[in-house]
Specification:
Largest sheet: 5 strands, mixed, barrel
CATH topology: OB fold (Dihydrolipoamide Acetyltransferase, E2P)
Order of helices and strands: EEEEHEEEH
Number of domains: 1
CATH class: Mainly Beta
Radius of gyration: 16 Å
Strand content: over 45%
Distance between the termini: 45 Å
CATH architecture: Beta Barrel
Structural class: mainly beta
CATH superfamily: Nucleic acid-binding proteins
Shape: globular
Strand order of the largest sheet: 1-3-4-6-5
Number of strands: 7
């Protein structure tokens, strides 16, 4: 079974791609805590690339750098061309609205809305 559930913070604003059927694909990286390093006395963080399908325009306004989200998806591989060579990148692919906001918006978002 290929199921991944992660909770973390967006490291940047998502990059959006329009599909032929009018739906949006969001691509972003998610910073997730994976443990504590006692030697460095700090949390260890893993940065996971996310590809989320079917993002509504309403939901896009909430997906901003620093926002905490929960994703449930599957591990998949994206391919792309770079310098004439085919490249591959492992990511978590999220379908069917399995992306949820967690907690309050970051302070920068809250202050902008005033």
């Amino acid at each position: 079974m290929n199921v991944v559930t992660l909770v973390g913070n967006l490291t940047r604003d998502p990059y959006y791609i329009d599909t032929e059927n009018g739906k949006k694909i969001a691509k972003f990286d998610l910073a997730t805590k994976v443990g504590y390093d006692p030697e460095k006395k700090e949390d260890r963080t893993e940065f996971v690339p996310i590809t989320a399908f079917g993002i509504s325009e309403k939901f896009q306004q909430y997906l901003k750098k620093g926002r905490a989200v929960s994703v449930c998806g599957r591990v998949g591989t994206d391919s792309f061309e770079k310098n004439g060579e085919k490249q591959y990148r492992t990511c978590v692919k999220v379908f069917n609205g399995s992306l949820q906001l967690v907690g309050a918006a970051p302070k920068a978002d809250s202050e902008e809305s005033k």
